């Protein structure tokens, strides 16, 4: 495996393989890594948590607050350390070690929104919650990654049960064979 990567438009990781090149969607790749890890965390009730130096208070709408209370145990199993503060407010004391602390403030709101919007795609609450958090916490398109970060992400992706397609069946990795590349340069 080559360790030479580059990012195309801060969205796609490009790497060379013997038979051509791989194009890897960095957001979908990280989301799949997180999704599978969060599912595992919920099942085993074990996760790596990074404590926040300054807990984050989040005030939610009444409906989102009630939904979050229903999901509180699973959210804590994913790797969040959340407490009910009352008055439609949650306190985040810790986050999964895969999640960037700067992206933490909107994480709960985004997750709840994703949870409500993806009801039809998943057969159970656990999968839906893992998907929602992975979507909210994954590296976004437009974020620059260095070679070490790309290498780490790709290693994690290929350790997944499903590295080529995400839980909704969308492509994560697209391969372009050398034969296809050569055809583009043939004389006509």
Strand order of the largest sheet: 1-2-3-7
Indicate the multimeric state.
Answer: single chain
Largest sheet: 4 strands, antiparallel
Helix segment tally: 6
Low-confidence sequence ranges: none
- Give the CA-CA distance, first to last residue: 34 Å
Write down the overall geometry: elongated
What is the share of helical residues?
40-55%
C-alpha Rg (nearest Å): 19 Å
Main structural class: alpha+beta
One letter per element, helices H and strands E, the order comes to EEEHEHEEHHHEH
Strand content: 15-25%
What does this structure look like?
The model has no long low-confidence stretch (mean pLDDT 88). Strand 2 and strand 3 (20-25) form a beta hairpin. By secondary structure, the protein is an alpha+beta fold. The strands form two sheets. The chain has a four-stranded antiparallel sheet. It has a three-stranded antiparallel sheet with strand order 4-6-5, covered by helices on one side. The chain is built from six helices and seven strands. Helices cover 41% and strands 24% of the residues. Helix 1 (26-44) crosses helix 2, helix 1 packs across helix 4 (125-137) and helix 3 packs across helix 4 (125-137).
In short:
With 188 residues, the protein is an alpha+beta fold. It has helices at residues 26-44, 62-78, 107-117, 125-137, 147-158, 178-183; strands spanning 5-8, 12-17, 20-25, 49-59, 81-86, 89-96, 173-177.
Question: What are the salient characteristics of this protein?
Answer:
6 helices, alpha+beta, 188 residues
